Structure formats: C-alpha cells, structure tokens
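Translate sequence into structure tokens.
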Amino acid sequence: MVPALTNTDKLTFVDLFSGAGGLSLGFLHSGFQCICALDSNAAAITTYQHNFKDQFSRVDITEATELPLSDVIVGGPPCQGFSSAGLRRLDDSRSTLVRVFSELIVRHKPKAFVFENVEGFLTAHNGDRVFDLLGPLVDAGYRIHLRKINAANYGIPQHRKRVIAVGGLGWDPTFPEPTHMAFGAPGSSISFRHLPMCPTLADALVGLPEPLDAPPGLPQGHFTRPVSQRDAERIRLLLPGQSMKHLPVDLWHDSFRRRAYRRVRDGVPSERRGGAPYGLRRLHIDEPSKAITSGAISEFVHPLKDRFLTLRECARIQTFPDDFEFFGTVAEAILQIGNAVPPVLGEAIARNLRSDLLKALPATHSNGALLSFVPTASTGMSPVLEKLTARVNKCFQISPANSYLEQRRLWP
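Result follows.
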C-alpha cells in the first residue's frame, strides 16, 4: 500500500498536451511540482519554457511510452477533432489521442489524474470518445467523476463549458465544488444562486492601459491590429450584445451568410439549434465574456471601444497574469490562449485534488468505478445526451445516488 501523504509532501504531476501551460500554472499555484510537460507544438513549447523554465520535452505523445513517476497525470488531448467551434471530422486522428491519454495513465498508474476537454467531447463519434477515456481507466481501478462544467462557476470571467474528469486509483476523489453563480447567458443562473456572482469582463480588464498600435504591446500582447474599412463599419454599428446577424445583410461576411442558412447533416434547420452563428460580436462590459477561442481577436469586439479584443485582453479573460508571455505569430499566440485551461480553473481543480490526496487512504477499493456522470447543468438533455447517458449508465452501472438527475436535484 502507498503510504499516506502529509502536508509537507511535495506532490508531483506530469502535464500531457500541456500547450502554453494554463493547467500547469494552476497546479503550481496549488503547491504541486511539475516534473515533466509534453507537447509537440513549437510555439507552445517556447511559451512554456519561457514562463516555467521546467523540464520540457517535445515529443509525439503517441511515442511517450515512458514517463517519470508522478502523483498525478493531467492533460487535455487536442480538441479540434470534436470542437463545436469548428468542423467535426469523423476521421480526425487527433480524436484518438484520448485513448493515448488513458493508456498512458494505465501504464504509469499515478495516484490520480485530471482530464479536460471541450463539451463536444461528449457527443463526438456518437459518444465513443467517452468510452475511450473511461473504459481503460475504470478497468485499471480508477474511480472517476466526469462532469460538464461552466468555468464561470469557478470564478472565470467567461462562459466556458468544459468536460472535466477526476479519478483516483483505488480511492474516491471528490469533484471541486463551484464557487460562483454564473449569469449573462441562457440558463446559466439556474444553479448555485447562493454563491457570489462570477467576475465580469470589466473585472477581467480592470487596470489595462490603452493598447499600443504595434507589437509587442504593454503588457505583452496588448496592441491593436489594423482592420479593414468594412470591418470598421461593422464594428461601429454593433451595440453591446449584438452580433453580425443584427447588421444589414450587405455587411454580412460571405462565410457568415453561408453558415446562417446551413442545414446540418440530420436535416434539422440551424435556427432549431440555437440560431445562426454569431460572426462578429460586441461583448457586454458588465457580464462574463463569451468563451475565448482562437477566433476571439477577429470576432469579439471590445464592449466600449470600436476595435477587436487584444491578445492580452483575451489572456486576462482566460485568467493568465500579465507577466505570462506568449510566443509565436499572432495566430499561434491566440491559439495557445484559446486552447488553454484557465489557470484559475486549474488551481481550483488542483487545490481540491491536493486536499483529497492528503486525506486519501490509497487502495481502499479493489475495483474501478464511474462515481458520477453529469453531462449537462441544464434541467433537460438533448436526445443525443440522453442516449449517451443511458449507454454510460448501463456500461458503468452508476448508482442512483450519483446519477445525473440526483446530482442535478442537489444543486442549489
């Protein structure tokens, strides 16, 4: 049996698919020590090495057969294969990295793991990626919570829906409790009303000076980029909360026009799936931002100024400190920012996991289990999620006390 941990023990972690290091930063702030971080993107590696100066390897993750021993393995396999913000490609090989992630954990058997991904992870490939993650880990003895969360409920100034899985090898971890009530998006305030409201965009941007006209900006990344005359006209007409659909049709982007009238593969009109895409969108200063993605600097308009958000403003919304610098081209930098786990969210997860590890009695259970599965915070589920939940419940035999309906009922 692994000896119990003490408050003086330095817990260690390995960060797979680390990107710029948002999850690493959160774990470091919670008292963990990073002993290895792996990625294959050159710009992200430069960013990570500059900010952390820790051991770092540039490898193809699929060839990372041996990792240094650590207490925890964390990571988020690249999400482009199943992100709702882009095209879903059924043959996208990156989606299979979920299986690689789970198999690396099985091989190295850390005391715990943390997995993070986009909400589209749940329904991609008819939900098969969920089983790629859970199947090997439950068989290996991990006891797991898998839930979809809104980062705003953890003090992040944006609505960012993500899937988080936390597992312990032979012991039952807890899932981090929300700290804030979200607001400013449909359905976001139905739960956790007893908690303080989450930070707003104004809170995120407070203290930033006017951006410079050219890079690198001060702080780094806080500079504006030239916009076309047509975009300047679009931006000028947008009021807070409005998007391209509120503009005259002759000002629509061609790509927006095509997507606005698209029909998805199953024939359901887009207006029955939440309406047309947004294209350009002016944010509200007194609400949380919409989710920061790699398109934010060309889609999100500042709530008070007639310009797009800067790289640094996007990093602020993602809760990166101003002294955290990003390297590569503008496109590479915003991709790193948009793909990152917000460090404050990472810290909340790490702080809860550290507390669990200090209290845990390792190997108290001989079998793995899916302790809870909560695929939505909504009061209802789409037919796709209903089908997935039924498959998961049947496969992993979730107890009624940990079912979606029971967990949903317990939320204030």
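Note: The radius of gyration is 21 Å.
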